[in-house]
Amino acid sequence: MKVRILGCYGGVTQYHRVTSFLLNDSVLLDAGTVSEALDKDELKKIRTILVSHAHMDHIRDLPTLADNLFFLGCRRISLAAVKPVLDIVLTHLFNNKVYPDFTRIPSPESPVIVPFPLEAEKAVVLDGLEITPVPVTHTVVCTAFVVKEGGKGFMFTADSGPTKRFWEVAREEQGIEFIMADVSFPNRMEKIALKSGHMTLAMLQSSLHTYGLQDKTVYVTHMKPLFSEEIIREVASEGERNIKLLEQESAITL
């Protein structure tokens, strides 16, 4: 499996893109940054879009992506998420008010976007990947994802503060080579991290140790750009070889 990092920050600047990962060229994991990261030939290969939750930095490029796919002649792209997340996207985004309803364009029989409801902790196979959503603690309904191919894969916390079920699954799941984990704020901002449903490095480390995962390879993602240098210094000062920084425009091959 190839995991291409299109964007991995919790905010936008000239140099920082928000969350979106391209898996095996055809599956998007969140859609914060897509259209400005991929050319038209790459866009045409997308067959499935996974959405963890409906906050703007994770769905920001859905409208422009749908628009581009329409004019490229692409049809029936699966938009996969648990039902409460799908309902928000369809009610408040593709509603012919904020943006055209691409679940009915160019026709209800052959639309660009086809909603695909997922069930929490029930695995499905989409474009050759086994996908399992796992509920996490955030300010809105949000799911992490277990993604596997050929018995091995990775886990993604999505946006999450301290949570329980994700780490229980991570402890028991076989074949997980790494975890991409939300570390949005530096340690000194623990209160705002808790209030906003995110983690600091210390909070992440606490979960890893609590669930016996302290040796698991973990990539820090979703850093707020204004605090990224401070978080990077904290990761470096800890000296834990298993905790790494996810790099925008890089790729990980499993």
Q: Would you mind describing this structure in some detail?
A:
The structure is a single chain. The chain is an alpha/beta fold and 254 residues long. The protein has one domain (2-253): Ribonuclease Z/Hydroxyacylglutathione hydrolase-like (Metallo-beta-lactamase, Chain A), CATH 3.60.15. The chain is 25% helix and 26% strand. The protein contains eight helices and 14 strands. It has helices at 40-43, 56-59, 62-71, 83-92, 165-172, 190-196, 201-210, 228-238, and strands at residues 2-7, 20-23, 27-29, 48-50, 77-82, 113-118, 124-126, 129-135, 143-149, 152-156, 176-182, 218-221, 243-245, 251-253. The protein has a seven-stranded mixed β-sheet. The chain has a seven-stranded mixed β-sheet with strand order 7-8-9-10-11-12-13. Helix 4 links the parallel strand 5 (77-82) and strand 6. It is globular. 44% of the residues are buried. The model has no long low-confidence stretch (mean pLDDT 97).
Q: Enumerate the spans where pLDDT stays under 50 for 5 or more consecutive residues.
A: none
Summed up, the helix count is 8
Q: What is the CATH domain class?
A: Alpha Beta
Which structural class should the secondary elements be placed in? alpha/beta
- The strands making up the biggest β-sheet line up spatially as 6-5-4-3-2-1-14
Tally of domains: 1
Total E-strand runs? 14
H-E string: EEEHEHHEHEEEEEHEHHEHEE
Q: Kindly state the percentage of residues in helix.
A: 25-40%
Mean pLDDT: 97
Largest sheet, if any? Answer: 7 strands, mixed
Distance between the termini: 5 Å
* Rg from alpha-carbon coordinates: 17 Å
Query: Might you state the CATH topology name?
Result: Metallo-beta-lactamase, Chain A
Instruction: Assess the beta-strand content as a share of residues.
Output: 25-35%
